Amino acid sequence: MPSLTRPLHADSRKSVVDSWLEQTIPKGMISLEGSSILPTTELPDDGMSLRDDASTSASSMIIPGSTSTGTSERLITSSPLFRSTLKMNGVHIDNFGTKTPKDIEELVTKHIRRKRDSPRLGSEERDEITSKIADSWDKPEPMVSDISSCLFPVDLKKVSQGGDTLWSTQPLPRNPEYPHGLVTPKTDRHYGFHTALKSSWSPTELAAASHPSVRPYSQPTNDNLFSLFLLEVKSEATGGTLYAAESQLAGSGAHRVQSMR
């Protein structure tokens, strides 16, 4: 039986891709001023929380600091090459604050670094925190992350806590000309506004935040709306490093910034 399909000419393929992009990506969602880096539109394809990675032709081409299944090669956040992945996807870690824009620096100084007179902990509270840290000192990451709950008490009437769940992928910046995408965020702890069941927002506000086209940006998980405060905890017992935590949070932060844009 003759084939019912035939290869598309290059111009036709370009036309199909352009048409798909116009229908899939809302106008105004191109990020990073003038660059070609776009928010992604695909969902996670597996439970490994890694996506959009290049495949190699042979296992001998596997890069140190990566994982491999068959012929596919995936960078991990602890790899020395992962910072290149961040940069090539438009995410920069400014360790020394030398490239921070003036308006951002003023915002950080005014709201984040301002002096706060926190109440001192009572002896019972100190003992409870010390006990939790001691119990978790040699434990793996999921148990170590429990410490954050008592170190960062929150008013649960206004804020919802979530964590350890794969986020949506649509807001992640992606450079289509670079072979590696960012790791799908799975932040240990994140805080945001209550979802519809506990929220005091108006029906109109909740309807807007819960609209199917908005939800990947407003609600990366089912835990809360507009996650704003993110924590990544690492355990020395399982080889966790500050480098890997920073790399993970850089991706999570880019996710939230792109979502707000």
TrEMBL record:
Residues 55-73 have a biased composition (Polar residues). It comes from Aaosphaeria arxii CBS 175.79. Residues 118-137 have a biased composition (Basic and acidic residues). Residues 37-73, 115-137 are annotated as: Disordered. The lineage of its organism: Eukaryota, Fungi, Dikarya, Ascomycota, Pezizomycotina. This is Uncharacterized protein.
